[in-house]
Amino acid sequence: MAGQVSHELELNVPASQAWELYGTVALATLVEKGLPNLIQKIDLVEGDGGVGTVLQLRFAPGVPGKTDYKEKFTKIDNEKRIKEVEVVEGGYLDIGFTLYRTRIEVIEKENDSSVVKTTIEYELKEEAAANASLVSAETYAKIGEIAKNYLYKNKAS
C-alpha cells in the first residue's frame, strides 16, 4: 500500500531566503526550539547538512503514537530547491512502513514571495494498512508556521 499527503504554505519572502532555512539543518534547530511539546531533542548524528546527513529525533514524553527515529537527507537540489528526507531507523519503520519520505520544495513566486510544498510519501505492508491513518501533514503545518515567523523576523530588506 502506498500514498501521500501534502501541505502548502505561502511565504512573503523570496524562495532563496526560504531555502536558506529549509534546505539546511537550520530547520531542525528551529523545530527543536519551536515545538517543545512534540520534539524533545534533535541530534545531528552524522554529516554537515548535505546529502547523507542523519538526524535523530526524540519526541517529548507522552506524545501519542510517536517513537524516536533517525532520518537521512537523501536528496538536496539547491538549484531546484528540493530536499528529500527518509526515515532510516525506528519510528514509522517499526510499525509496518517500508518507506516514509518527506519532500520539501521551495517554489519561487512573483513579488518576492514563495511557496513551501511539503509532501509525505509512504509505503507500508498490507498487514499494517491501518497505520496509514497516522500519516498527517499537521506537523508540517506547525513547522511551516514556526518557519514563517522566523523568516519574517529575519527578513532581508
Describe the overall structure.
This protein has helices spanning 15-22, 26-34, 138-153, and strands at residues 2-11, 39-46, 54-59, 69-77, 82-90, 97-108, 114-124. The mean pLDDT is 93. The longest helix is centred in the last third of the chain and has 16 residues, at 138-153. The protein has three helices and seven strands; from the N terminus they run βααββββββα. It has a seven-stranded antiparallel sheet. 21% of the residues lie in helices and 41% in strands. α2 (26-34) crosses α3. The chain has a single domain, classed as 2-Layer Sandwich (Alpha-D-Glucose-1,6-Bisphosphate, Chain A, domain 4), CATH 3.30.530. The chain has 157 residues and is an alpha+beta fold. One of its GO terms (cellular component) is nucleus. Residues 1-149 form the Bet v I/Major latex protein domain. One of its GO terms (biological process) is alkaloid metabolic process.
Question: How would you summarize this macromolecular structure in one to three sentences?
Answer:
The chain has 157 residues and is of the alpha+beta class. The chain has helices spanning 15-22, 26-34, 138-153; strands at 2-11, 39-46, 54-59, 69-77, 82-90, 97-108, 114-124. Strands 1-7-6-5-4-3-2 form a seven-stranded antiparallel sheet.
Radius of gyration: 15 Å
The major pleated sheet works out as: 7 strands, antiparallel
Q: What's the number of domains?
A: 1
Low-pLDDT runs: none
Individual helix count: 3
Helix content: 10-25%
Protein name: S-norcoclaurine synthase-like
Domain Bet v I/Major latex protein: 1-149
Pfam family, one: Bet_v_1
GO cellular component, one term: cytoplasm
